[in-house]
Write a structure and sequence with these properties.
Rossmann fold, 49% helix, 2 domains, alpha/beta, 4-stranded mixed sheet, Arc Repressor Mutant, subunit A, 16% strand, globular
Length: 401
């Protein structure tokens, strides 16, 4: 008896095959979508604009603390693809903008894998040049010409880039200026924040039918490379999309407008991939590519989560230019927000590295006044501090009276 007897959803099987560990499950979810996107490349599309097709290629960056499993999660994606990696132009390593142009000129497509961005770029300026180029090449073009020092003008035609990377928040903050967020890179990128599971798992626990599931997924990846056609929306999916579009809020921070402007495109990309993940229905009718309302609903939810991570990154980038006290307040708040629930003793120990006791108490009072946190007394006389605000925004220090 195997799980595939009852469930053939590719994402479900992918997460199942990754086993039980402390690695954030959300990493495996997005790696699964990235694998599907790399397999179908530009052979499937949604015809949103008459002048160009919307393909489901993705830029996915897993964001989290050092050692939280980003590299292992990305490695599992490569293991699932197996021998198919070479056909998909899997590239795991460092690459400069001129080298990327040369690669695309010769091969047209690339599945770019950078498990730790900090190891790929020695200087922030290198990262910024690379980000500028991949932002420009995100959507397929009939022709893109770029001048280089070593090779003169290089022309790239009909390129397709799928990117799966990993980074710490600290590296992103140090290497990516605020104008990069506003310029549109993060409107094209899904930043996936993950936190290592608090459930202790010494060694990963893999299912007994691992080999059978892995074989099924590899066969399915082969099928994905043959799928071709245009996606359409069911009537309910179109209704869900329209209601969401007309009711969505304008972000408080104008720096996030490029991300908002591309929300619909990103939602459609993810919805296409979620539809493809339903392998039983897809294999029964491979020529009928349809996005249902359930795909659209789920796409809206997971994309919204990714955008929350971008909002937090934008807040943190903004913090770099703030006065010291405001920085410490944001840092203090971030400790609670990430933990969700923390003892006051632990909070004091962690915050004591950058702020004194009197200021810590005032910060806590300010957060309570802002209705961001609440405190609860324990039976043994301790205090639990809980983050209660659901917007996942870093608060601003109240003005002194």
């Amino acid at each position: 008896m195997s799980i595939i007897d009852d469930n053939k959803d590719f994402i479900t099987l992918y997460k199942y095959s990754a086993g039980k560990s402390e690695i954030p499950e959300v990493y495996h979810f997005w790696c699964a979508l990235s694998v599907i996107a790399a397999c179908v490349q530009d052979r499937v599309w949604f015809n949103k604009f008459r002048s160009s097709y919307l393909n489901p290629n993705l830029y996915v960056v897993l964001e989290g603390g050092s050692g939280d499993g980003k590299g292992v999660a990305i490695s599992h994606a490569g293991h699932v693809l197996g021998d198919l990696k070479s056909e998909l132009n899997w590239f795991d390593g460092s690459i400069t903008p001129p080298q990327l142009l040369q690669w695309l000129r010769k091969r047209r497509t690339i599945y770019l894998v950078t498990p730790e961005l900090a190891q790929n770029f020695d200087f922030p300026s290198m990262a910024q040049r690379f980000i500028r180029l991949v932002t420009e090449l995100y959507s397929k073009k009939e022709s893109h010409i770029e001048g280089t020092i070593a090779h003169g003008f290089v022309e790239v035609k009909h390129q397709v880039i799928n990117w799966l990377g990993g980074s710490t928040k600290e590296w992103l903050v140090d290497s990516i200026p605020a104008h990069t967020i506003q310029s549109g890179f993060f409107g094209r990128t899904l930043l996936i924040h993950g936190e290592r599971s608090k459930v202790k798992v010494l060694d990963p626990i893999y299912p007994r039918d691992y080999d059978e599931v892995m074989q099924y997924m590899r066969e399915q990846c082969e099928i994905y490379t043959t799928i071709k056609g245009e996606f359409t929306l069911s009537n309910k999916a179109e209704q869900v999309r329209r209601i969401w579009y007309e009711q969505r809020d304008i972000p408080d921070d104008p720096i996030l407008m490029p991300t908002r402007n591309r929300e619909d495109d990103m939602m459609l990309k993810v919805a296409m991939l979620l539809s493809l993940a339903d392998t039983e229905r897809l294999n029964a009718s491979p020529s009928s590519l349809k996005i249902d309302h359930m795909h659209m609903h789920r796409a809206q939810m997971v994309v919204a989560d990714a955008q929350d991570a971008i909002k937090l990154l934008a807040d943190t980038v903004e913090v770099k230019s703030l006065p010291p006290k405001e920085k410490y307040f944001r840092r203090f708040s971030d400790i609670i927000q990430r933990a969700k629930s923390i003892t006051k003793t632990s909070l004091s120990q962690r915050a004591s590295k950058f702020v004194d006791g009197k200021t810590r108490e005032q910060f806590l009072v300010d957060l309570i006044k802002l209705d961001m946190v609440k405190t609860t007394l324990t039976k043994n006389g301790g205090v639990i501090v809980e983050w209660r605000d659901q917007r996942r925004r870093i608060p601003k220090l109240p003005k002194e009276e």
